[in-house]
Specification:
Length: 494
């Protein structure tokens, strides 16, 4: 017998009752007949009475896009330091989403099978039996239930995050209008992919008490240097205006392959995104964005240890002059194959299901992709001065109508004092946390596959790329960091 399904568009009653379908069952504490009759009466008041076999779906809740991360999120887990790395204790985390249009009429089992392949169907069945999968906040014990418009799904998982550099996140300026930090390499700016607590946003909230910040620009995960946040929406809009009017300048320092020519080199080639999941691009006439890593590769001087644009997957000439000689699909496959053979797939930040060939749905959660889009909106005009393959590049980004003084710069001496003090403080905290971590092993989850894997710690070279945002400058402010060790003239590569 065919059953008709009622959605929130047909029935706007605000209640959380459930009715059994002919394809699956939902757990419900209200099992007595009186409760069922009460539910039917409430639905009748909303427009009409549900037919036998119909399942009611409550209307979607209004979302508040302005909500930022708060103490509730910061206390999900804690950090510990070990072997020079910042690590996160595994924790339980709920992924939530409303039913997508393409899922309507399909069973939960079909959706997990086709679009969430990171885990096996056996895992999802066991997770459902333990109440970890919910529909409209009611545990689902049968994944054959048919999805309807506005269904709200919740999947609780045991989450592991990759370790990052244990170098302290130094706050250079906090003047009430902006927060400026010296971002260590290996840290994503915001939660994305496998990273949540090991991100700049969460560390500032958990350790510095700074929350509700507005991102002005981003840096790639492996890029270090000056990173700017606005304290208020008003300041954020003011800085955005400067970006649009090209009143801002970024200056980078990087170490590249080969000997870069003297004088100024200007590159204005358009760039096209090849993969949002990996977050990499190539020069293409149809492209519109700009990115320093791609332009250096185009000029024939890729960053020395760039895991994407310095890869041999691009061919013997590393796509110099934009000559690739293969399709985007072939290029992505070659890139994954090369890093797979070197056991360095983690440098691409690929989800496990894509690495293993069990590709899931495409997402825009790749930190690299989002960072590229923000970092490369600058015009391509760059001043370049090089000495023995050490290049200092200035990207003129954006200018603004407002000439009012917003911020004060921090001198290199002040920055050095802060860095040294932060290192000493962090060392003592790290030692104590490391001892605590060793004595208190984290709780393992019997359904979690990651708990059964022992992953080696990443080497320091895998956490650093030779690209550093040295200076961020506006009409009336300038923020600068110290040169990284690898950028100094007496530096020797291991």
């Amino acid at each position: 017998m065919e059953t008709k399904e009622t959605t929130a568009e047909e029935d706007s009653c605000d209640t959380d009752s459930t009715v059994t379908t002919n394809r699956g069952k939902r757990k419900n504490e209200e099992t007595d007949e009186a409760a069922k009759q009460g539910n039917r009466k409430r639905h009748k008041k909303c427009g009409r009475q549900l037919r036998p076999g119909e399942r009611y779906v409550p209307p979607p809740q209004k979302r508040n896009p302005g909500v930022s991360f708060s103490q509730e999120h910061f206390t999900e887990t804690s950090y510990y330091f070990e072997s020079g790395l910042r690590k996160v204790y595994p924790y339980y985390f709920a992924f939530t989403t409303y039913c997508k249009g393409r899922w309507i009429g399909k069973t939960l089992l079909e959706v997990f099978k086709s679009e969430f392949r990171a885990e096996s169907l056996d895992y999802y069945k066991k997770a459902a039996k333990e109440g970890r999968i919910k529909l409209n906040e009611t545990p689902v014990d049968d994944l054959n239930i048919i999805l309807k418009n506005n269904d709200f799904m919740r999947n609780t998982v045991h989450r592991h995050e990759p370790p990052v550099s244990g170098k302290p996140l130094e706050v250079l300026v906090d003047d009430g209008e902006v927060v400026v930090v010296d971002k260590p390499a290996s840290l994503p700016v915001h939660p994305c992919g496998r990273y949540r607590h090991n991100t700049v946003i969460f560390i500032l909230g958990k350790e510095k008490g700074l929350s509700g910040l507005h991102t002005v620009h981003r840096l790639d995960r492996l890029t270090s240097g000056v990173l700017l946040f606005a304290r208020t929406l008003e300041v954020s809009k003011k800085l955005d205006a400067m970006v649009r009017e090209r009143q801002l300048e970024k200056e980078y320092v990087c170490r590249v392959e080969g000997e870069f020519p003297e004088g100024e080199v200007v590159c204005e080639e358009p760039i096209l995104v090849v993969s949002f999941r990996v977050g990499f691009c190539r020069v293409d006439p149809k492209g519109r964005t700009h990115q320093i890593r791609v332009h250096l590769q185009f000029l024939g001087f890729p960053i020395l240890n760039d895991p994407i644009y310095g890869s041999s997957a691009w061919g013997p000439n590393r796509a110099k002059g934009g000559l690739v000689g293969m399709s985007d699909e072939e290029l992505l496959e070659a890139l994954i194959k090369e890093h797979s053979s070197k056991e360095s797939l983690h440098l691409l930040d690929l989800p496990d299901e894509e690495v293993s060939g069990k590709q899931g749905p495409k997402t825009d959660c790749s930190d690299g992709a989002q960072e590229h889009n923000d970092q490369i909106n600058a015009p391509a005009s760059s001043g370049v001065a090089c000495d023995d393959s050490l290049c200092k590049l200035t990207e003129e980004e954006v200018k603004a109508e407002d000439s009012q003084e917003l911020h004060k710069s921090t001198s290199a001496a002040e920055t050095a004092d802060k860095m040294n003090g932060a290192h000493k403080e962090n060392d003592s905290v790290s030692d104590e946390a490391s001892i605590t971590a060793k004595s208190n092993a984290f709780a393992r989850d019997h359904l979690c596959g990651e708990c059964k894997i022992v992953r080696p710690d990443p080497a320091e070279k895998d956490l650093i790329m030779y690209l550093h945002a040295l200076r961020y400058k506006g009409p009336d402010f300038e923020y600068t960091t110290q040169m990284p060790d690898w950028a100094k003239e007496d530096w020797l590569q291991d």
